[in-house]
Design a protein that fits this description.
By secondary structure, the protein is α/β, with parallel strands linked by helices. It has 18 helices and 16 strands. The strands form three sheets. Strands 6-11-10-7-8-9 form a six-stranded mixed beta sheet, with helices on one face. α2 packs across α3. The two termini are 31 Å apart. Its EC number is 2.7.1.24, 2.7.7.3. One of its GO terms (molecular function) is pantetheine-phosphate adenylyltransferase activity.
């Protein structure tokens, strides 16, 4: 049985560690299931009197780049104490260590020294020596393309004040490389701008981006865990330059290849403000070797991470005393042209029963029903066609120009649709359906989710929704946008969703969800 949290200690000379990182990580991941801390022992750097920044950043980049391939399900955290020559042992870890692993075998006096050094981390479990059981006879591998960087400033310079920036939505390997490179070069204060507001507008699946407070809290927890010696200045930013435009203390900035042009723009602003220029350090993009589809980005990214959340349980269902455990009733909703009906058909094809509330809406208007009579009483005979049916074209202009009248319409029609839906659900239960989909555009507005075990939401990028409305219904762009604006927003729906789908991409990717 694997431990939840482990501490992997590199003891071999650091240049020997580099080619062995993939195998060592793969072996360590077999023993840990949740969080893997990594520490650089003094033995690994005993030949250096001072931190070798350019060498260390290769090791850090390799570790995090390889974890995206070998340890996808682990939260890997490289402790900076050993890399910055601050301490022989980690200063502390946020999560208690259950298992200690060394990268090679030791015995006799050497083993006694190591066990004494890490006695505060070695508890009931004996340490594991990965070299003897998993990584013997390794071939040299000098392929370090994931770790090569372009340094604008002197490679081994340490700065008092360093700055980084990003969205930092669910920290991944690319984020951790960026942050670790900043930490490695920082002596006193690290500033991080965290994108918010207009900077998120064009992000893929922006509705799934964590709230700014949560992203900053997660970022701070990670930074304090891997290097508690620094001061951290974590600030929301709504423009790309953030505090780099005016903060006189900043000395260097770490950026990715995608954003390196921003250093030139930042320094131009700082020259105008009479400030010092920022030295720049550029990190390479990390290739994503675990893509589920060509629709995902080729690099490790938060966008691909959010795409992989589609079709998964984002938050556990809330138990409802009024509902039996079976069958499972799933409320499926989404905005206009979000692909909700398409998803419902796919679920039908997978064996679920489907209740189409749009069709039930037509039934609710049928002549002779209580709902029919209530509508005429509320809105007059002018809404009745020559054949006796409710004329929706006549009713529309009456209610859509008045919130009060629209609310009145809904108060009459929604309860009737709910009643018809409950009847349809009973029929599907009798037919033996174990999963029933309640397909309803106004599921949340009408509060029909109260008789659903889960809420599944379909979303689509606004521009794509507008295009679909224009193409399908022949509406103008302005008309399409007004239709979208009059509905509940994607963000409001997602906040109440257990599962989210998006039909933005090809058929196969939707089916995968």
């Amino acid at each position: 049985m694997s431990a939840l949290t482990g501490l992997l200690i590199f003891t071999q000379p650091i240049k020997q560690i580099l080619p062995k990182i993939p195998q060592i990580l793969g072996a360590a991941c077999e023993h840990v299931s949740k969080t893997l801390y990594i520490h650089l022992d003094p033995l690994a750097v005993s030949s250096y009197k001072s931190p070798q920044v350019s060498l260390y950043d290769r090791v850090l980049s390799q570790i995090y780049a390889r974890t995206s391939q070998h340890c996808q399900d682990l939260d890997v955290r490289v402790l900076m104490t050993g890399f910055k020559h601050q301490s022989e042992i980690p200063l502390k870890t946020l999560i208690p260590i259950e298992l200690v692993m060394f990268d090679m075998s030791y015995s006799g006096n050497e083993l006694n020294k190591l066990e004494q050094r890490y006695k505060s981390f070695i508890h009931t479990n004996n340490p594991i020596f990965l070299h003897s059981t998993h990584v013997s006879n390794l071939a040299e591998d000098h392929d370090n393309e994931d770790a090569s960087e372009i340094c604008v400033g002197p490679e081994n310079t340490i700065y008092n004040d360093v700055v980084v920036g990003g969205t930092f939505d669910r920290l991944h390997a690319g984020h951790k490389i960026l942050l670790s490179q900043g930490l490695l070069r920082c002596r006193s204060r690290l500033t991080s701008g965290v994108s918010e507001g207009p900077l998120l507008k064009n992000k893929t699946l922006k509705e799934l981006i964590l709230p700014i407070d949560q992203r900053i809290a997660n970022l701070k927890a990670f930074l304090m865990d891997v290097d508690p010696t620094l001061d951290y200045n974590l600030v929301p930013i709504t423009d790309p330059l953030g505090p780099t435009k005016w903060d006189p203390k900043m000395e260097m900035i770490v950026v990715s290849e995608e954003t390196k042009k921003g250093v030139v723009i930042i320094n131009a602003e700082r020259i105008q403000g009479g400030l010092n220029l920022l030295q720049g350090h550029v990190i390479n993009i990390v290739e994503d070797l675990c893509r589920n589809s060509d629709a995902e980005e080729a690099k490790v990214s938060s966008s691909s991470g959010r795409m992989r959340l589609l079709g998964t349980l984002l938050q556990p269902p809330t138990h409802k005393d009024n509902l039996p455990d079976t069958p499972c009733i799933i409320g499926l909703t989404g905005g206009t042209d979000s692909g909700k009906t398409s998803v419902a058909k796919r679920l039908l094809g997978l064996g679920a029963g489907v209740v189409d509330c749009d069709k039930l809406g037509h039934e609710a208007y049928k002549e002779g029903t209580d709902c029919y009579n209530e509508l005429i009483k509320a809105f007059g005979d002018s809404i009745v066609s020559e054949d006796g049916s409710i004329n929706r074209r006549a009713l529309g202009p009456i209610v859509f120009g008045s919130k009060e009248k629209l609310d009145l319409l809904n108060s009459i029609v929604w309860p009737e649709i709910a009643r018809l839906a409950q009847e349809k659900i009973k029929v599907l239960i009798f037919e033996g359906k174990k999963i029933i989909i309640l397909d309803a555009a106004v599921l949340l507005e009408a509060k029909w989710d109260t008789f659903c075990h889960q809420v599944w939401v379909c979303i689509i990028k606004r521009d794509e929704a507008v295009r679909r409305i224009v193409d399908r219904d022949g509406k103008s762009v302005d008309e399409a946008e007004r239709r979208i604006d009059n509905q509940m927003s994607n963000e409001q729906r997602v906040a109440q969703a257990n599962v989210v789908f998006c039909t933005q991409w090809d058929y196969d990717y939707t089916q995968l969800q």
